Amino acid sequence: MIVVMKPSATRIEIVNVTARIEQWGCRAHISEGNERTIIGIIGNGRPLDRAQIERMRGVERTVPVLRPFKLASRDFHPQDTVVPINGVSIGGKTLVVMAGPCAVEGREELMEAAQSVKSAGAQMLRGGAFKPRTSPYSFQGLGEEGLRILAAAREQTGLPVITEVMSPEQVPLVSTFADILQIGARNMQNYALLHAVGEAQRPVLLKRGMMSTIEELLMSAEYILSHGNNRVILCERGIRTFEKYTRNTLDINAVPLLKQLSHLPVVVDPSHATGKWELVAAVSRAAVAAGADGLLIEVHPHPSKALSDGAQSLKPEPFTQLIASLKAVAEAVGREL
Amino acid sequence: MIVVMKPSATRIEIVNVTARIEQWGCRAHISEGNERTIIGIIGNGRPLDRAQIERMRGVERTVPVLRPFKLASRDFHPQDTVVPINGVSIGGKTLVVMAGPCAVEGREELMEAAQSVKSAGAQMLRGGAFKPRTSPYSFQGLGEEGLRILAAAREQTGLPVITEVMSPEQVPLVSTFADILQIGARNMQNYALLHAVGEAQRPVLLKRGMMSTIEELLMSAEYILSHGNNRVILCERGIRTFEKYTRNTLDINAVPLLKQLSHLPVVVDPSHATGKWELVAAVSRAAVAAGADGLLIEVHPHPSKALSDGAQSLKPEPFTQLIASLKAVAEAVGREL
Amino acid sequence: MIVVMKPSATRIEIVNVTARIEQWGCRAHISEGNERTIIGIIGNGRPLDRAQIERMRGVERTVPVLRPFKLASRDFHPQDTVVPINGVSIGGKTLVVMAGPCAVEGREELMEAAQSVKSAGAQMLRGGAFKPRTSPYSFQGLGEEGLRILAAAREQTGLPVITEVMSPEQVPLVSTFADILQIGARNMQNYALLHAVGEAQRPVLLKRGMMSTIEELLMSAEYILSHGNNRVILCERGIRTFEKYTRNTLDINAVPLLKQLSHLPVVVDPSHATGKWELVAAVSRAAVAAGADGLLIEVHPHPSKALSDGAQSLKPEPFTQLIASLKAVAEAVGREL
Amino acid sequence: MIVVMKPSATRIEIVNVTARIEQWGCRAHISEGNERTIIGIIGNGRPLDRAQIERMRGVERTVPVLRPFKLASRDFHPQDTVVPINGVSIGGKTLVVMAGPCAVEGREELMEAAQSVKSAGAQMLRGGAFKPRTSPYSFQGLGEEGLRILAAAREQTGLPVITEVMSPEQVPLVSTFADILQIGARNMQNYALLHAVGEAQRPVLLKRGMMSTIEELLMSAEYILSHGNNRVILCERGIRTFEKYTRNTLDINAVPLLKQLSHLPVVVDPSHATGKWELVAAVSRAAVAAGADGLLIEVHPHPSKALSDGAQSLKPEPFTQLIASLKAVAEAVGREL
Fold it and tell me: Fewer Cβ in 10 A, N or C end of chain D?
């Protein structure tokens, strides 16, 4: 950490800051410029409390030097993490497509969806049993019954299953049925939940919050990793911006950046990132070209009857065509599908 | 809800949309313009599923007409809600200042803080026992011991206590000690938690998420209200924008707008909204001038030793001065403190 | 346009609104719901003034139905616009790569850069003679001398040249030397400038403002088109968001969306959209996969000596490799390079 | 400036960076931590080119230490700048209210407006003769005729006049008629225009761009100051965020922050900052309470007939009431009106 003193800082204020630094067992390195004094802190391990230093007299601001995440960082774990899930691997050369309806709406509906995404070439089945909805008056999901239906669909199709978990006490139940536990965007900083899935025996797909920075996403991954679960998959699903023609703005920059900063696999959710099914195919191809390890796509046999997110769900036929075009793009960038 | 058809929509597509509307038990009202057909839906009560209609052929988009919140809306509850809390009332003519440290750090520290905010003129004591922190390596709060310390400080000073609750299973415990349950910004859309506090026997202060619209804030209030708890206080605490000189951007427009849209009391947290103690006084005065019903301010006797948020905490002396200046502003706008 | 009346609107207020609509020579179509009355305006051509209606008593808000752009819209011009420039065509099957340094820094430097981007496979040369810089103390460009150097480089390499024009009175001068006039992001709503290039005899590349919506970009294109210049190329160059690890956030959704909404060609500037050369290759491939018609890339033989934007400039060698990988992605999506 | 080297940086890479720093005539100050080396640059005056250093091998990033603005900074000009304008002073103890219609629509309309804002207590008259409009099909202002009408209104009422200038070649003309030249939000980074008004003999009111940081606003002020015009007034007029219920989000934090960072006067435009007349009064009071030196308010005798921005214009009567309440708030914070 670096401490930038005010131009008006006195000798005594500078001494007080260095004394505090040494109290912490760190070393202070003073550099006097023409206008300002800068104090470098040579640490003894993390973390230092920036706010404490910033409240000392004569201090203008502090600048962190080290990245605040460690277990998630590629600096200390150069090789890619590959997460194996019942015969499917996420993070290797082969891309993984997880597809299915936004919500599990019933047994028949899900079986039909599961069969159709399998036929099209998806390797995993997605579907929500517990649904976070903005309105208390919207369909909230089938709960445990939805989990049983998902498990039945896995039985029938052989596709592993990913589904969302919304609170710490649901973790044991959802872990019984799901192959991957999904943390939704609204819960990316629900620390009680991150703690709980950090102790679970299942891989976790962590969605970026719609207004969370890349650093915050990696810090939330750090929570899970620091509680002992190292099977974490990052998911870029669009961020909130001022643009109104789309539901969210896919941060495509985040894909190569996350791959540089971290060893964890990165998947993209083009359905939420656009909110419009007409854009899903183009954006899915872009995600693969940018280096994503997989995709999480909403597919519904009858979107105009979907109980949630119909506007962004692909029908099975365009989904099948999309898979074909993704194969070509994957090959163009040295991957396969 | 209004349905805007594409310019290319066919007669059959229009008929299909109106048939769907009638299936729902609503009436369709067709209006043919020169370029497009518009279909108004005259509802039978809420909610309609926009996405289902948007996925029908020939539909360009839908436009909601009604506000999606009802219990929180002033339309159906014109008079102000006033929330009484152990002798203090939030939402009436008298403004309420809740002050104290970001986190409860120890018994002595809190007692000192509580005495000093009381002397300065605060009517309630704030302090976090469970702390949501971006980093798993930061101080996470004292937990239940922190709650006991808060209760002891209430005993000694007579100030009612507000503290954060972070997960559904903490609600009974925190309700035993706290006078107001605080939902933090990161949990504004933690629906399991909203459900739990909706059934609690304590007033709830709901902070706006840093990424959440005013409509979403009111929808989260709707969750709590719809579970039976009508003692909800809204809190504007700054939103995330592109500006980097401040931690957040206080949305001062939200204060009069929330008062227009809703009957619930509105308080402002100038500490998080700025992240800089030097700005807290000016922004607190602005909040009162804009019509806020109260303030939630971080005050710490020794901010440069604070275990969290020291940079935005006021010391007792400037806090005392602030209270004096707030009295003058309150009077200027017909309120009192 | 649709007018949503307040729940409290009286009969007289509704009559006044319809009277105003009829004064405008439009027809009003009233639809009475259970809670609110909605009035559809059937227009006589654009535009209507929303704000005037919104200020009438009893009106809650208005909702526009038609897109505000017409000349730029695909609705009225279904086939793609292709802009031919000295033997290169933008908007057809073949992608166009425009490359070169951020600023023209001197004759030798530019000649070296021009030769190297030509060898790598670029079809056009970019370089700024007039530079918009945030600081008045930064290098402001070589001005007219820079234009002469660009023309000399075109002479030598055969590459057409694109360069920025910053004010209306520069338009004749820049038009003498440049093959495409570039409007920078900061000038996207500089209407005097849009007017001037709308009357120029050169194609215009219009960059999206860093905080402008897609609709505003198309409205600025509309200004140029409405002044008689129909050779407009749209450029997505990243928008400003809360994310701090990158300079801007490339709005990849905008690529397929602009292609749907408009007939104009769409190119992407991955250099500004990321601000980091390490991300340029991945993001360029994503842009092509998403359907972009071309790329505008900063390439500098010696980026660590560049007078501006060195951090986002590719060296010639990785640029050559990038072109090779772009060919593969282009083919995967049915294009060529 | 501070250079943060990568953990993997070699001895040679560090030597190369220090050599470059010394080439620039600066001194390098090396600080070796456990994980990284940090190099402080002790400058010889501004500016240094961060991007050049960032492109050197082994460099992770650079951190600026000094603020990039100098003439606008309070560090070098501690006392407040007060701008005198025909008997009115902006930046002193007395607040200044500038009011009038968005656009000059005709002689009679403006005279009526001017008389009514004068009676209500405004000290200056605002009105646009040249109007920047998003759509080429909207009313673009009366141009020179509008300027003549403004001058006539000044003659009649004695109120000095502020009006917008949109391009460099309009500066001489507008300077003939106006007392203050206004730079609109969309032109805050129109550097040719900033240069032109920097050489004009009139005070300049510089509006913050809706997409611009506080630092960028001060850098644009620096352009004007560095061209010799030191009568610059800053204007906060709301920024663009994700919130949709209001037209913009007033950044109230910016008011005290700008007063701390700079010696220039700061005024607030509550009309654009909200876009809704119902919010203008509350937000105006907040601006004064936060320390603004003045307000720029849209007032129109007949807003529902206004040719632009009717929805955010106050009628004369509520404006008169607002002035009364502003007097009380001004006194509460030690100012007068």
Answer: C
Angle formed by the axes of helices C254-261 and C277-290, nearest 10°: 40
Q: How far is C285 from A333, CA to CA, in rounded Å?
A: 9
Taking alpha carbons only, the member of C291, C207, B1 closest to residue A278 is C291
d(CA A288, CA A292): 5
Q: Rounded CA gap, D208 and D199, in Å?
A: 20
SS3 (DSSP) at A57: coil
Q: Which secondary structure element, helix H or strand E, spans residue C174, and what is its range?
A: helix C171-177
Condensed to tens digits (0 to 9), the pLDDT of residues A100-109 reads: 999 999 999 9
What SS3 state is found at A231?
Answer: coil
Residues of chain A neighbouring B249 (CB-CB closer than 8 A): none
Interface contact B283-D290, CB threshold 8 A: yes
Strand partners, A235: A207, A267
- In the three-class reduction of DSSP (H, G, I as helix; E, B as strand; rest coil), residue B32 is classed as strand
Q: How many CB atoms lie within 10 A of CB C100?
A: 30
Q: Which residues, in sequence order, are CB contacts of B99 under 8 Å at separation 6+? A: B117, B120, B122, B124, B125, B126, B295, B296, B297, B298, B299, B319
Q: Which residues in chain A are contacts of B186 at CB distance < 8 A?
A: 189-190
Tokens representing C71? 């000349």
Q: Residue A83 corresponds to which tokens in the numbers above?
A: 């997460």
What is the distance between the alpha carbons of residues C194 and D292, in angstroms, rounded to a whole number? Answer: 35
Dist CA C61 CA D168 (whole Å): 38
pLDDT at residue A133 is higher than 90: no
Given the structure tokens 């309440």, which residue do they identify? D325
- B2: pLDDT strictly greater than 90: no
Give alpha helix (H) positions in A71-162.
Answer: 107-120, 144-157
Query: In the numeric block, which tokens belong to residue A137?
Result: 């008056």
Helix (H, G, I), strand (E, B) or coil at B204: strand
Round to whole Å and give the CA distance between C63 and D70. Answer: 46
CA B224 to chain centre: 12
What DSSP line would sit under C93-137, residue for residue? SB-EEEEE-SB---HHHHHHHHHHHHHHT-SEEE-BSS---SSTT
Interfacial residues of D (vs A; Cβ cutoff 8 Å): 2, 4, 7, 29, 31-36, 38, 40, 42-43, 63, 65-66, 75, 240-242, 244
Compare CB distances from C286 to A239, A274, A289 and report the shortest one's residue. Answer: A289
With beta carbons less than 8 A apart as the criterion, state whether D296 and D126 touch. Answer: yes
The CB density around residue B138, as the number of other CB atoms within 10 Å, is 17
Residue C95 has pLDDT above 80, yes or no: yes
Where in chain C does DSSP place strands (E)?
A: 2-5, 27-32, 37-42, 59-63, 83-85, 88-90, 96-100, 124-126, 161-164, 180-183, 204-207, 232-236, 266-268, 294-298
C241 closest CB neighbour out of A239, A286, A328: A239
User: Which position has the higher pLDDT, D95 or D76?
Assistant: D95
DSSP B302: S
Q: What pairing do the DSSP bridges indicate for beta strands D204-207 and C294-298?
A: unpaired
SS3 (DSSP) at A114? helix
Query: What is the reported pLDDT for A41?
Result: 86
Two structure tokens written together for B269: 């947290």
Indicate the length of chain C as a whole number: 337
CB C130 within 8 A of CB C327: no
Mean pLDDT of A283-300: 98
Contact between C3 and C41 under an 8 Å Cβ cutoff? The reply is: yes
Give yes or no for a contact between C133 and D223, defined as CB atoms under 8 angstroms apart: no
Q: What pTM does this model have?
A: 0.94
The secondary structure element, H or E, covering residue B180 is strand B180-183
pLDDT for position B46: 59
Quote the ipTM score: 0.94
Nearest to C134 by CA among D185, D186, D197, D218: D218
Please give the Cα distance from D241 to D247 (Å, whole number).
Answer: 9
Q: Is the dihedral of CA B310, B315, B320, B322 positive or negative?
A: negative
